Amino acid sequence: MKARLIGEPELEFRARNRHIDPRYGVAVYGPADADSPSAPRDITVGLVGPAAAIDGMRGWLERCQTRIEAKEAKAGQENLHQPFPGFSTDTSFGAQLVFDDALVREIPDRQLRTLAKADVKAAITEGAGLYADAARSLAETGRCRVILCARPEEIREHESEPPAPGEDADGEEEHAETEIGRDFHDMLKAEALGLACPLQVMRRETWEGTVRRGDASRPLQDEATRAWNLHIALYYKAGGTPWRMPRRDSDLTACYVGVSFYRTTDGGELHTAVAQVFNERGDGVVVRGGTATISKTDKRPHLAEADARKLLSDALAEYRRTHGHQPARIVLHKTSQFSPAEVAGFQGAADEREIDFLELIWIQRRGAPHLFRTGQLPPLRGTSVQLDPHTLLLYTRGSIPYFRTYPGLYVPQPLLLRPAGDGTDLQAAGADVMALSKMNWNNAQLDERDPLTLRTAHRVGAILRHVPPDAQIATRYAYYM
After folding, report:
1. Does 3.30.420.10 match the CATH number of domain 254-479?
2. pLDDT band at 281, cuts 50/70/90?
3. Rounded distance, CA 141 to CA 107, Å?
4. What angle do CA 40, 24, 74 make, to 5 degrees?
5. Residues 6+ apart with CB under 8 A from 470
6. How buried is residue 261: exposed, middle or buried, by Cβ count under 10 Å (0-12/13-18/19+)?
7. Left (φ > 0), alpha (ψ -120 to 50) or beta: where does 403 sit?
8. Contact in structure between 45 and 146 (CB atoms under 8 Å)
């Protein structure tokens, strides 16, 4: 076996400028859609939360209008931390947050004290409803592009750690039908799927910079990183495109689909969590499918042929309604093996729309052998080894020459890519996964482990499990992140 290196994918920014680092690209060139008439300029935001939290949240956001210096780095590793240029029309972002006292909904202390006395489940349910009602009144004004909600500390949840600040998202959980420890976040997002604008949930740690556990506290990410993560998310939720995957004129128009499964809150049937469809720009649409069954062979959920066909057909129909055209190539990722029925169903949907290029790839997140590199650092990000004709081992996390270090805290875990059927170029499939690992607008991280297709499918499922099966859902991904 021979290891090969898949080069660090470039991203495209304003005026088709390219760079491998999202932060550098936005800071130097500007967002990818900066010259578009539809790019967000003045982003009017609504604020929901306790009075003190609203003051803290707004004060920090106003501070982020100007430059925030990067964390001091070791000699030679200056690229690891980037200063935040400031979020205003005078900086490379070309956009600013607009505040209005009329677009503030304070949650009274009396109601928060009631939540603090309730049991966890009741507090989460009541709190999500309380915040959703406040957000709804803001959305109905028709003036908000994004609504920021300061998470109430009176609601307790069983979490080992808070999400990374500014991410409004979880860490690196398993993409499976597991219980999610962020039920307030997920229930609030579920309640808000019918609003005219998306929500951003913020914790106090985001604007204060420390994590509190009882009487103890510890520093969180540096301020510039927190500002990067949050404002990239806000720009995207306001309808902007921070960066995109480059495409040559000769390349086929591609869409990328992630499929996963989730269990309903009553622990009953297992449903298709999502068909999450993205184009190269990162525009995403969400489609919910039918019921899956557990296979007696591998004990994993699978779709019947008809359900697989309908799921992809519905996803492609939504893609066409959103983008105005049909893709020429479909790449579908799943975290479990494809059954013969699923292969037939997905292929049938592609054939029905006369799409000739369909790639079905099982991305296995556990069980991959580890590689060892001479020296103290892990293998380079992009290291790949073809283990057999149908299996590629790929490191999407690892040492990065641009940083001159490995930026992670733990031993990186490689992925296994296993295409269904013959004819898939494993190196090209690996390059797709590498590029998609950089398309996460919940932060400005260079090296996510999972491709966008799988990470988003999990998040969407965590929210949809709180939504009745017959309820209409938002199709735009910004509502789920």
Report:
1. yes
2. confident
3. 18
4. 140
5. none
6. buried
7. alpha
8. yes
| pLDDT confidence tier of residue 181, bands split at 50, 70 and 90 | very low
Which tokens belong to 384?
A: 């790949």
Q: Is 125 within 8 Å of 187 (Cβ atoms)?
A: yes
Q: Would residue 281 be called left, alpha or beta, if left means φ above 0 and alpha means ψ between -120 and 50 degrees? A: alpha
**Alpha-carbon gap, residue 396 to 381, rounded angstroms:** 5
C-alpha distances (whole Å) from 442 to each of 20, 266, 479 are 17, 29, 12
8 Å CB contact between 480 and 203: no
Supply 51's token pair: 């009075």
Instruction: Assess whether pLDDT exceeds 50 at residue 178.
Output: no
Q: Where in the chain is the domain with CATH 3.30.420.10?
A: 254-479
**Spatial distance between the Cα atoms of 459 and 476, rounded to a whole number of angstroms:** 13
Which conformational region is residue 299 in: left (phi greater than 0), alpha (psi within -120 to 50 degrees), or beta?
left
Residue 22: name the closest of 402, 411, 424 by CA: 402
Q: What is the 3-state secondary structure (H, E, C) of 383-400?
A: EEEEEECCEEEECCCCEE
119 token code pair: 């049991």
In whole angstroms, what is the distance from residue 382 CA to residue 82 CA?
Answer: 22
Instruction: Pick the closest to residue 137 from 98, 111, 103 (CA basis).
Output: 103
Kindly report, residue by residue over 428-444, the tens digit of the pLDDT: 999 999 999 999 898 89
pTM for the predicted model, two decimal places: 0.91
Distance between CA atoms of residues 185 and 149, nearest Å: 10
Cα separation, 244 vs 246, whole angstroms = 6
| Residue 361 and residue 257 in contact, taking contact as beta carbons nearer than 8 Å | no
Burial class (CB in 10 A: 0-12, 13-18, 19+), 2: exposed
Give the Cα separation of 198 and 135 in Å (integer): 10
Q: Is 354 left (phi over 0), alpha (psi -120 to 50) or beta?
A: left
Distance of CA 277 to the CA centre of its chain: 13
pLDDT at residue number 219:
65
Q: What is the pLDDT of residues 334-376, one digit of tens each?
A: 999 999 999 999 999 999 999 999 999 999 998 899 998 888 8
Q: Are 320 and 326 in contact (CB under 8 A)?
A: yes
